[in-house]
Amino acid sequence: MTDIEKADRPERLSVEHRMVGGVRVVTVQGEIDHDVREVLSEALLSEDGAAPPSRIVVDLSGVTFMDSSGINVFVAAQRAVSGPEGWLRIAAAQGPVLHVLQLVGIDAFISCHPTVEQALRP
């Protein structure tokens, strides 16, 4: 498991990622806003200069706040991995974060699941 905490105020966001059966699972805790968007983007799409993974699940169970910066990162990540075998899925968004996802309609083109386990299913 790799822990990435490079934001100006790293105590606001913690991002870990691991591989599960060829899928990158990115677990995010804290707040997603303009100040940390690059950290989130890097965690989703890059690993020491390697090509982006083709399948990503983002676990938002620990996210307490998200603004449009997070939405923009997810849209960019979806575009980067979309292809015959690629996808981005969001898992376990709670309360206000789930409301933001639904309000802007991101759940219409990025699959949202109640749990990571469900998001990992083929």
Structure keywords:
122 residues, alpha/beta, globular, disordered N terminus
Helix and strand topology:
Blueprint: E1 2-4, E2 13-20, E3 23-32, H1 37-45, E4 55-66, H2 68-81, E5 87-91, H3 95-104, E6 111-113, H4 116-120
Parallel strand pairs: 3-4, 4-5, 5-6
Antiparallel strand pairs: 1-2, 2-3
Helix pairs in contact: 1-2
Tell me about this structure.
The protein has four helices and six strands; from the N terminus they run βββαβαβαβα. With 122 residues, it is an alpha/beta fold. A six-stranded mixed beta sheet has the order 1-2-3-4-5-6. A hairpin with a 2-residue loop joins strand 2 and strand 3. It starts with a strand and ends with a helix. 32% of the residues are buried. Mean pLDDT is 88; it is low at 1-10.
For the record, give the distance between the C-alpha atoms at the N and C termini, rounded to a whole number.
23 Å
DSSP helix fraction: 25-40%
| Gyration radius, in Å | 13 Å
Number of beta-strand segments: 6
Give a quick account of the main beta sheet: strands, pairing sense, barrel closure. Answer: 6 strands, mixed
Q: What would you call the shape?
A: globular
